[in-house]
Write a structure and sequence with these properties.
This protein is 28% helix and 15% strand. The protein has 402 residues and is α/β, with parallel strands linked by helices. It is globular, with a radius of gyration of 21 Å.
Length: 402
Amino acid sequence: MLEVEKSLRASRRVVLGVERLCESRAELLKGSRVGLVCNQASVDRALEHSADVLRRTDGVNLTALFGPQHGIRGDLQDNMIETPHTVDAETGLPVYSLYSETREPTEEMLRDVDVIVCDLPDVGCRIYTFVYTIANCMRVARRLGKRVVVCDRPNPIGGAAVEGNLLEAGFESFVGQFPLPTRHGMTAGELALMFNEHFGIGCELEVVPMEGWTRGLWYDETGLPWVMPSPNIPTLDSATVFPGTVHVEGTQVSEGRGTTRPFELVGAPYVEAAELARRLEFQDLPGVKFRATNFQPTFQKHAGVTCGGVQIHVLDRHSFKPVLTGVAVLKALYDMYGESFRWKEPPYEYVYDKNPFDVIAGTQRLRMALEKGLTLQEIEGSWQTGVERFLEERAPYLLYEA
């Protein structure tokens, strides 16, 4: 019975927001000059890029393209590697980088734009810049009297589970602008509604929802093709662990960038792999197995140096807790290798005056808890009040059934 249920879910056809926009909601754009915020993963189910889908839609006048972090083609690997403004060779349209000297469109960039269409993927984690690029566009649109249309896409790790601490005031950044939990369980369209109403951006916003998506669906159950949303999220496996191991970016430990398994591999030159794996296995965390391994990053931290560590194998993604697992990995590393373990030095995502780990976590409490030796149960327990409040706050903005 379970296998039949899985088969039925896997065959479900999800219609993307951009497909619905062009097929039945194109009146939202007719008579207007359109700027599209997109990257290489902004495709329909036939793998046609959203820019091309819009250009062939009757009455749509596409005048400009805008790219987020990693560039409009998703080819730049690391954080704080800016992309230049350019011209699209295929269409001749101007391409403006929103990860450059500015993280929001300027008045000059929007001179020939009446409606900003946002069609960006997300990975279901607060610590990811694309939804804040959308938020920045919404703020500028409010100020300049432009409209915003957000074409919704699936949360690849589902919309049911919520986990982690809420971002605290004073720790806002380009990887966290609002008090969301680490794993928020919302889509980009739902977040845009919450940003606009609950958090008070107040622009003229229209969200074009998907058809056929429900909160329990993971990306591989949608029938949609996977295109990596950014260079270091190559697979759904990497997206699954990302809400936890993204915290490793705030340390001098490798999070697997420069390998073929970013965010699934964690380690450092001083780590004895078997010892770390045994310590983590002893925690008996749900849905996960830690395999001792050695790896050598080709770039970024410890490039060309062999690191001992673990690969995180998710055996049951429905019981797996990515945030707790990521914290468990960091706690084991800190407790076992405190003399060698180091937090990353600033800057991180244009924040120059705070510990990068605190910027990622959205609080200094998590770092302090690790330094003080608090248990995993104590750390997880500290999240619960915030999660419960968030679940109440997000309820009015949910577009999809469980």
